[in-house]
Amino acid sequence: MYADHYIEETSQDTKQGLVYVYTWVGTIYILDAVTDYIIETRVRSYPLSSIFKLYYSMIYFIFYRNLFVRLRSYEQFVAIQLASSFWVCIFHPVCMTRIVYRTLVYLFGISKTYEEYKRQVGRGLFLRNLAENVTMLSFLCWVNILYYGPNSKIYPYFQFNDISHDKYDHGYTVKASLGIWISELISNFINRTICKKFMGHHVTKEALKDLKEYPELIVAFVLVMVHILQDMLLSLLVLHFA
Q1: Residue 201 within any structural domain of the chain
Q2: Residue 241: strand, helix, or coil
Q3: Is the residue at 242 inside a domain?
Q4: Is 240 domain-assigned?
Q5: Residue 86: what are its φ and ψ, rounded to 5°?
Q6: Res 54: pLDDT
Q7: Sign of CA dihedral 84, 86, 89, 90
Q8: What is the reported pLDDT for 1?
Q9: Which residues of 128-141 are buried (b: 16+ CB within 10 A; e: fewer)?
Q10: Which residue ranges does UniProt annotate as crossing the membrane (predicted)?
Q11: For residue 242, what pLDDT is reported?
Q12: What's the pLDDT score for residue 232?
């Protein structure tokens, strides 16, 4: 409901943007945790768990990317991205610690070994990074196609027709989005380095092992990404029937 209200509004401040982002963060993490628990304890399928984790990451980042079209200044872009990058750089390394692992064992009785648990957290980071890059590339493509293309009239969301903010336009959004993408790549590098140096877990190598062990995941990942990207564009359509 808040997401619909946020998208309908023509002007939002930094506080509203942060609420929008972290409402989605909380929702996605809760749904992901519940789904992961059901699959791990009932279905017991590692590939299926990976597919759903990518699915939820894609959903979150699609809404996060479309938030960029509603921001009004570089200060808002910086505030939103600093909050996101700070969260990324501390969340996964902290989750990999033995303290968090023992706490989860005590509270929820998880049966994984510590190494299996680290592998699961690392997989989550890899899939998050994959969703980040895919959605950002897609956003930059569709924000240009829908701005210049013949279907622009049915996507007013991307027309930047906000006369109260002169600097808020197509070029402004593209430049700021590219800046955010660069900052995400840097924060992800820092995150993976921390996991490798201090937690003894190489995120990329472990992810490649998973893909070699379950090659069908590659096809499944592609289908999930195409499905989510397509559905999101359809949800942004504005049709006026006579």
Answers
A1: yes
A2: coil
A3: no
A4: no
A5: -60, -45
A6: 94
A7: negative
A8: 54
A9: bbbbbebbbebbbe
A10: 20-39, 46-64, 84-109, 130-149, 217-239
A11: 47
A12: 72
Q: Are 228 and 53 in contact (CB under 8 A)?
A: no
Taking the chain (242 residues) in consecutive chunks of 10 residues, what is each chunk's mean pLDDT? 52 62 78 86 88 91 77 73 78 91 87 90 94 92 85 74 63 86 90 91 93 94 92 65 48
> How many domains in the chain?
1
Q: Which amino acid is at 174?
A: V
User: For residue 78, what are the CA distances in angstroms to 1, 84, 97, 200?
Assistant: 26, 10, 29, 32
Position 123 in a domain: yes
Kindly state the helix (H) or strand (E) to which residue 136 belongs, with its residue range. Answer: helix 114-148
Q: Give percent of the chain above pLDDT 90.
A: 34
Our CA angle for 203, 207, 208, nearest 5°, is 120
Q: Are 162 and 168 in contact (CB under 8 A)?
A: yes
CB contact at 8 A, 56 and 225: no
| Encoded amino acid at 95, one letter | C
Q: Which among 234, 231, 233, 228 has a CA at the least distance from the CA of 57? A: 228
**DSSP 8-state code for residue 68:** G
